[in-house]
Structures are given as structure tokens and as C-alpha cells.
Prior knowledge:
- The chain is mainly alpha-helical.
- Helix 5 crosses helix 7 and helix 7 packs antiparallel against helix 8 (184-212).
- 62% of the residues lie in helices and 0% in strands.
- It has helices at 12-20, 37-57, 62-84, 111-120, 124-141, 153-159, 163-177, 184-212.
- 15% of the residues are buried.
- The protein is rod-shaped, with a radius of gyration of 39 Å.
Amino acid sequence: MIHPVDTLVCDTARIAAWQQDSAFDYNRELIEPQQTILQWLYEVIIGFLSEVINSALGYDVSWVLFAVIGILLIGVVGWLVYKFRPGIFGRGKKDSLDYELEDDTIYGIDFEAAISAVLERQDYREAVRLRYLQTLKLLTEAEKIDWQLHKTPTQYTYEFADEAFLKMTRHFLRIRYGNFEATPEIYEEMTASFLNLKSQTSNLKSQAKGGDA
């Protein structure tokens, strides 16, 4: 019996070339790319939320979920920019105070003339500021407080623990820093407190002079 001759020849050189060619590396399609923990957690959360919502509504709402998340992220980023970079939106802290912060000095000011001028235009915010600074000057000259440009109003209330002065300081802080409305009533109250303190310091000076005599 005659057997047919096997004419098939294995070309080992060509097989080796194919093995080195990445185009024929079919195993790589079966290997999943590595994920970070954050990516894995993100997919788990999104998958869970999608499954819950889909089960509740009965149809695929994945795109709605992604849209809501996107809108929330944009809102958070916008709020952070508005909070920490207000200049981008044209909002500045200094503009909201209606007067220069650097002018809080008690020297070189004719307080009565300045207060009369701002009252003519009914600027009670500035009138309150000037009356409080005038009070600081009065207490400094009476040696009740040690005025310094770097000090805060609260520090002066520790040096001079007077109830009327404490109330004046509260009004000043709320109007100046808290954007509370400066009303004529508040200004009149602060003026009455100033005149009362002025009378007290004048009496103390008179008593001191009488004692020296």
C-alpha cells in the first residue's frame, strides 16, 4: 500500500517572527488594564447608583446621573472660585465697606466738622465710624486705653471695661465688618455714650487737678 507523501513543512522562522509581532498578540485583549483605587471606587459607586435608580424607575437613567454629577461639580468649583477669588466676579471685600480701611486713625481729624459733613448727606455709616474713632481718641487722652494702629476694637474693651463703650464697639464692628445697617438711632445712641464718657473724663480731670492743689 502506497502512502501519500506529506508535503506540509513547518516554517519555524516565520512562526518566530509572528510571535515577536505585537499585532498577533491576542492575549493582551483578554487582560484588563490596571485601575487605581479611586477609579475602581468611582465605578462601584456609579454602578450602584445607576442600578438603584434604574430599578426604581424601570429604565436607564445613567446619562441623567452623570449630568447631575457634572452640574454639581461645576457648582462646587464656581462656589470655591467665588469664595476665594472674589475679584474674578467683580466682588471685593473693600468695595463692600463703602470707605477706606486705611483711614482708621484718631489723629489729624476734625471730628465734629467731619461728622457734620457726613450727616448732611445722611451717611450714618461713616458718622458711626467717625464717632467711634473720636471716642477712642477721648479715651486715649484720658489714659483709659493705649491706642495703637494695629490693635483691634475688641482689645480696647479689655483695657476699658465700660458697658457703654462695649456697646459702642459692638455697633461699630457690626456695621463696619458685618454690613449691618447704620441707622440714625444707632448714631444717636453712640453720640449719647460719647458725650457721657466725655463728661466722665472731664470730671476725673477736674478731680485730679483739685487733688493736686
